[in-house]
């Protein structure tokens, strides 16, 4: 994997973590997620 792709994926991972982390528990529940799910979902963007 090239370094540019790794950097872009890391940025996407951090953005996803931040955006989902800023949602309230109610908003997460409305979209069918829990706080526990955030890291797994963000990790998918890092692959």
Automatic annotation (TrEMBL):
Residue ranges of every copy of the YjiS-like domain listed in the record: 4-39
Pfam families: YjiS-like (PF06568)
InterPro entries associated with the record: YjiS-like
Name listed for the protein in its UniProt record: Uncharacterized protein YjiS (DUF1127 family)
Native species: Neorhizobium alkalisoli
């Amino acid at each position: 994997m090239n370094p540019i792709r790794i950097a872009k994926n890391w940025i996407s991972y951090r953005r996803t973590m931040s955006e989902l982390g800023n949602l309230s528990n109610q908003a997460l529940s409305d979209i069918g997620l829990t706080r526990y799910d955030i890291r797994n979902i963000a990790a998918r963007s890092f692959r």
